[in-house]
């Protein structure tokens, strides 16, 4: 079976057992990736990158899938996507206010996630648990709920003095998880760090959300690979975690990193 299309980030859905079911959309085909684990697959880069915003061919992908022009103008590529504190939509300033109303001026959560090391993050309410799945979190807990992205970014900025805001990808794909981490205790510690004007955004629910990933074997010495350097990637798929496909020889590829790349996926 061969599927062809431009790569987008994998979609992950939690089933009733809190396990992720992964899918990859390639043109008109929604490929169930969990069914491919244990099978040999081949990903062939055809040499074309299409901008995810305007669709035109670009020689280089910027900000995970944009051409240079759209990176500077598309609302999906605005600075606040990566840096919530810089969001100005609450002041009526945005690349596209209609887009901002549906993305920035919506309820947001500040959370802690165990992705190998505990990290703090921000996500829109509608993106839970998608954001945690994309980061490969084995467990997560919400700290605060805010009415917009800027305030969530403000809270995150206070907490990054004591918590990392980066995912350690090697630890994540190796499943190096400190089982002694107590997210409830860390949540309380995080709340205690906030100034008085931000404590009021504390979220009432302190429940921990656990996530399981479809992996038969985790890499011991992971080596990341890219389609720029290897036009043809093949091997036995041993698992999926976060946005990474894991292969039997410890190679891993970040699918989201290759958004917009035109590929052929062959299942052998």
What's the helical proportion of residues?
10-25%
Could you give the count of β-strands? 14
Oligomeric assembly? single chain
Q: What best-fitting shape do the alpha-carbon axes yield?
A: globular
Compute the CA-based radius of gyration: 19 Å
Portion of residues in beta strands equals 25-35%
Structure class = alpha+beta
Strand order of the largest sheet: 1-14-5-11-12-13-10
Order of helices and strands: EEEEEHHEEHEHHHHEEEEEE
Low-pLDDT regions:
none
Total domains: 2
- In this structure, how is the largest beta sheet organized? 7 strands, mixed
Indicate the mean pLDDT: 96
Helical run tally: 7
Q: Termini distance?
A: 7 Å
């Amino acid at each position: 079976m061969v599927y062809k299309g431009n790569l987008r980030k994998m979609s992950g859905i939690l089933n009733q057992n809190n396990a992720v079911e992964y899918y990859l959309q390639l043109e008109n085909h929604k490929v169930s990736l969990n069914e491919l684990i244990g099978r040999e697959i081949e990903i062939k880069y055809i040499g074309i990158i299409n901008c995810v915003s305007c669709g035109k061919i670009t020689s280089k992908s910027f900000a995970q899938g944009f051409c240079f022009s759209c990176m500077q103008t598309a609302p999906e590529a605005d600075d606040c996507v990566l840096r919530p504190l810089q969001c100005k939509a609450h002041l009526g300033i945005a690349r596209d206010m209609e887009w901002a109303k549906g993305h920035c001026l919506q309820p947001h959560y500040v959370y802690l996630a165990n992705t190998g090391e505990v990290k703090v993050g921000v996500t829109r309410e509608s993106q839970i648990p998608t954001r945690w799945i994309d980061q490969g979190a084995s467990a997560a807990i919400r700290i605060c709920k805010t009415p917009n992205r800027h305030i969530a970014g403000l809270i995150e900025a206070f907490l990054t003095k004591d918590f990392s805001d980066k995912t350690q990808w090697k630890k994540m794909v190796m499943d190096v998880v400190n089982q002694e981490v107590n997210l409830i205790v860390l949540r309380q510690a995080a709340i205690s760090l906030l100034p008085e004007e931000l404590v009021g955004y504390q979220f009432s629910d302190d429940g921990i959300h656990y996530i399981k990933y479809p992996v038969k074997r985790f890499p011991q010495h992971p080596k990341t690979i890219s389609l720029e350097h290897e036009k043809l990637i093949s091997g036995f798929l041993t698992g999926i975690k976060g946005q990474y496909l894991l292969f039997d020889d410890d190679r891993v590829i970040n699918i989201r990193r290759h958004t917009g790349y035109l590929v052929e996926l062959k299942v052998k």
